[in-house]
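hey can u run this one w/ protoporphyrin IX containing FE bound, need the structure tokens asap thx
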Amino acid sequence: MQNQYSRRLAIIHWLTLILFIAAFYFGHELDETEQAAAKFGLYPYHFLLGDAVLVLTLLRAYFIRKDGKPAPIAGGSPLANKVSTGIHHLLYVLLIAVPASGMIMLNTTGLLVAFQSHDVSKMPDLEEFAIHEIHATLIFILIATIALHVLAALHHQFILKDGLMSRMSLFGKRD
Ligand code: HEM
Ligand code: HEM
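ok here u go:
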């Protein structure tokens, strides 16, 4: 049985972290920006980065099927293994739901029409739509789940010292 994720799965994992932070940054900037014309310039970066996170998540699911993944770390209790698997599944669901809700917002609020006609005056007030709130709430839940995930990784690294982090390492020989 393998004891590491394949290199391409490790690359996808760390690339997702970087793209997620970048998508969040542009989403936050959009939220803070009042001027419609300035928002118009920022949107494409946010959409591209958010869509890239979705594509990477779908690729990750595909490569996990092909490459497999390591068995739960030795010595963990059955409950800890269940919680860990549950959090990983929740991360996958949210990594799909967050970009999907963003795309629904783009398509159902008239924002896409404003883009297609290059007309800033057609920009909808997104705050009026429930999907705006849904996107923000899903992001909040995703960030809380990532925080739990990172805390668990740090616990393994510094308290249990069981080498869990090396399973997601980009370097080293694969078996
Ligand atoms: C990992 C992926 C994504 C993250 C982390 C993310 C993050 C964010 C954040 C933090 C905001 C500000 C929320 C607020 O108003 O409180 C936002 C707003 C928004 N996002 Fe995303 N988003 C993602 C994907 C997408 C995608 C794929 C689309 C569409 C194709 C999208 C469309 C939007 C739109 C239209 C807004 C509203 C901006 C505004 O208030 O003018 N998002 N997003
Ligand atoms: C500094 C930040 C992070 C660290 C240190 C970290 C560390 C790890 C480690 C060590 C594993 C392997 C766990 C195991 O073998 O049981 C893992 C798996 C995973 N990580 Fe992260 N991670 C981080 C950020 C993220 C982010 C931002 C996401 C998603 C947005 C994410 C999503 C996942 C998923 C879905 C898995 C499970 C893969 C699977 O087995 O299906 N991680 N992470």
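The mean pLDDT is 94. anyway lmk if its weird
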